[in-house]
Amino acid sequence: MTSAQVEQHDKDSSGNEAVKGAAEAATSGEGYQRGLGSRQIQMIAIGGAIGTGLFLGAGKGIHKAGPSLILAYAIAGVVIFFIMRALGELLMYRPVSGSFSEYAREFIGPFAGFVTGWTYWLFWVVTGITEVTAAATYMTYWWDIPQWLSALVFTVILYGVNLISVKLFGELEFWFSMVKVTAIVGMILICAGILTLGFSDAGDTASVAHLWDQGGFFPHGVGNTLMTLQMVMFAFLAVELVGVTAGESKDPKTVLPKAINTVPWRIAVFYIGALIMILSVVPWTNFQDGVSPFVEAFQKMGMAAGAGIVNFVVLTAALSSCNSGMYSTGRMLRDLALNGQGPKFFTKLTRSGTPLVGTTVSAALMMVGVWINYQWPGQAFDYVVSFATISGMWAWIVILVCHVRYRLKSDRGELPVSTFRSPGGVLASVLSLAFIGLVIVLMGVDKDARISLYAAPVWAVILGVSYAALKSRNPQAAAFAKRR
Question: Coiled-coil regions in this chain (predicted)?
């Protein structure tokens, strides 16, 4: 379906047939341009697993669990791999831009698709608000620039990039990811050099024995290590973004499996490898909450430029997250609109195949959020920001549930078998769901993370009321999804 056909569809008042045609467009991915090549998809997949959760948040985890944080990342990494392989199996069965919400409609029901689409959209809007604000704060490290001005400039630039073409989005994301990857690989090589050659201020004391000599591998007990699982999982949020690119990948059947299969070594190198090297060069007792372990490590090595380097890397990580938010929010809103679960004007595309209205509305909300954050950085806003974590995990839950239902149907011969089957099948997905359930329970136990759960019932009520209103106005949207 072309953009002109979409506009004609908007004028169609025949009800069910119009909704059905739109849903078919969402399924086929028509209207978008397949402008994302292998190089860009690979780096989007790599960059999605590397964010401020590693560069900044790991300091809190080290302070809380010591070297055993490495084990927490390893366990969580296995679960993330199964989540991504489950998503990969679904993508090879039917690669669509709507991704999670499309699968939710097909395998769970119309309400699940509605909830997933709007929740994932909210996740990226809120994430965009926090990240663009953070990026503006990082700019003050070098220049005395008003925070609101930096936030405005960043938002306008990223908005423009996302409207020009998906290829330009992919190119910008490629270079953002390249900066993050280069920084981590550089840190690993420097630490390896210190351990083997003994140069820098930390050369005389650096030793792999730091991983167990400073109070043991579990210096604060296994319980504290378990409590870090929530922040570890939060660090991996956005790894599923590669699924949203399915409808705009030049060769999704080839590119996406390759990108997903890189998950184990990405986690092994960028998280586990980096932490092993840093904690071998600098004892974990030197790290503290609120300070980037990368900055702390550079300082202990006697490298004064380290703080500036890490600040630049974290700036690019924040901008990368904002860029991803601009991209995904417009696609999610268009998918909802094509299925009759959102306003019809979100279906409109630019000539270059980008969702104009959805991206514009999302960018405007991000700017409002920046202004709110600047004016009232108090508790009310913190509630909204903390909700981003639980809403992001909802996408993982939906992926796993949809995978279980798809695998059962495909094994019975009711649906075609995917060319990229997940190892472990249904059992792996069920165990991953149980692990996520454990993380949510731990969030409820931890008073600092408990706030993330408070907003969830409120959002559920809002969605429930909105869906009831939708059904009363347009029952065909739900009726078609039920028959799929």
Answer: none
* Of residues 75, 115, 86, the one with CA closest to residue 396: 86
pLDDT of residue 20: 42
Question: Which residue is it, tokens 């809190």?
Answer: 60
Is residue 262 predicted with pLDDT exceeding 90?
A: no
Cα 57 from Cα 291, distance rounded (Å): 8
Domain 35-483 class, CATH top level: mainly alpha
CB 226 within 8 A of CB 442: yes
Q: Give the whole-angstrom CA distance, residue 252 versus residue 98.
A: 14
- CA-CA distance, 22 to 152, in Å (whole number)? 35
pLDDT at residue number 361: 92
Residue 267 and residue 233: Cα distance in Å, rounded?
A: 12
pLDDT of residue 199: 79
Q: Place 379 in a pLDDT band, splitting at 50, 70 and 90.
A: low
User: How far apart (Å, rounded) are the C-alpha atoms in residues 339 and 237?
Assistant: 26
Contact indicator for 84, 263 with CB cutoff of 8 Å: yes
- The H helix count followed by the E strand count for the chain is 23, 0
Residue 61 amino acid letter: G
Q: How far apart are CA 422 and CA 426, in angstroms?
A: 9
Q: Is 210 exposed, middle or buried (0-12, 13-18, 19+ CB in 10 A)?
A: buried
249: left (phi over 0), alpha (psi -120 to 50) or beta: beta
Say how far apart CA 289 and CA 291 lie, in whole Å: 6
The whole model's pTM is what?
Answer: 0.86
List beta partners, residue 349: 355
Crossing angle (nearest 10°) for helices 293-300 and 306-338: 160
Contact between 325 and 362 under an 8 Å Cβ cutoff? The reply is: yes
67-81, 89-103, 309-323, 379-393 — which is least confidently predicted? 379-393
Cα separation, 293 vs 58, in Å, equals 7
